[in-house]
Amino acid sequence: MTKDSIEKDNRMVPSTGGGFFRDINVEFLIHELKDPISVIETAVRMLLEKPDKFGPLTDRQEKALNRALRNSRKARSLLADLLEVGRSDAGCFQCSRFNPAFMVDEVLLEALEACNTSPWETDKEAGQGRDRDAVLEKLGIHLTCSDLVRGAQLCQDEAKFRQIVGNLIKNALQHRHQRLEIGMDVLEDQLVVEVVDDGPGVEKENRELIFERYTRLKACALLSRTGHGLGLAGARILARHLGGDITVKDNRGSGAVFRLTLPLTLTEKS
Question: pTM, whole model, 2 decimals?
Fold first, then answer.
C-alpha cells in the first residue's frame, strides 16, 4: 500500500492486488443482494412499528417478525463483512479522522439492536450520559475508556473499524453468560480495544482455528463461537490490512478476551 492510500481527504484508493473476490461477479452479486434484504427488513419493521396502519399483532406474530428482523440484520451484516474484506484484499482504503471512543459507543448500541431489540429500545429511551450508562450496567455491559482514548483521533478506515469492533462485540454478546466488558486505551501510538465476555472461553488449541474462514469448531463449548464462519476471520483480516491484529486469551475465571490493536494512523506496510 502506498502513502497516497492514507490521504485524509476520504479518497478511495484501489490497487490491482487482492484474492478474496477472484470474480467481479461475486462482488456484483453481494451488491444486488443488499437491496432485497433491505426491503425485507423495512417491511418487517413497518409491520412491527405501525400497528395502527397494518393492524395489531398477536404475541406469536410479533415474536416471529422480531426473529425475521434479527436474521435480516445478520444477513446484511454478513454482506457488509464480505464487501469490506474483499475491498481490503484489493487494497481499497477510505481513511478519515474520527474519535474511536465515540465510534465504539455507536457500534455497541447497533450491536444491541441487532442482537436483542428490547434492551436497545430501553437504552435509546435513556439517551446519553448517566441514565444510558445505568441501563447498560443493568444489561451487564461495561464500557471504559482512558482519557487518552477520549482525546484521540484515529486516522483509519472508519467502515472497516466499525466492522471489526462490531464483530467482536456481537461475538461476545452471543457467548457471554451475564457480563460484557469493553476497555479502550492508547499504548505507544496504538489503539487497544479489549472485548471481554464471561462465556465458555476458547480452548488454547482452537485460538487460531476460530480466525480461519468458514471454520466451524467441533468442541462443544465452542460449537457456535465462529457463527457463520466469517465474522472473527473477517475481523482479523481487516485488522491486519489496517496494520493491526486481533488475539484471544483466557479471561480470569471464565470467558475470553479478544484484543484488537491498531495504529492510530494507517501507514504504509513494510
Answer: 0.70
